[in-house]
Amino acid sequence: MVAPIYLDYNGTTPHDPEVIAAMRPFLESEFGNPSSSHWYGIRPKRAVENARRQVADLLGCDAGEVFFTSGGTESNNHAIKGMARARKADGRHLITTTVEHPAVLEVCRYLEQEASPRPMWMWMRPAESTGMPSARPSGRTPSSFR
Length: 146
Ligand SMILES: Cc1ncc(COP(=O)(O)O)c(C=O)c1O
What we know:
Helix content is about 40%, strand content about 5%.
């Protein structure tokens, strides 16, 4: 039987052997919580901070600007809620596309329903071939307009 080809690398990927080798000590013996102040947390904390610096160097930003999350859903929540709330004085319309993952659409719906203290509107547009929201009329309106 021919094995199927796995194409959903947004969902999960096999780990690179170098990643497995780098992570192995922290999965086996140095398993302390890096946020704890006791002995077991010291080396994992150093490793996390070292990784943060390496990622910052790759991205050309400060280490304090790098946040590690549990995955896509937490990252989308962090980014969309953070930006919408920080910039609410500049605009109150969330524009997204119908092809977005539920981890994006549900955050936008949540912000629209939260609507506090002033309303926020979610616009779902068809996506262009670039993935950007289409400017063409779709007949859809934010749910709070219905
Ligand atoms: C595009 C996209 N965003 C978000 C997610 C959710 O990611 P996670 O399962 O890491 O929370 C996925 C998961 O498949 C995804 O494909």
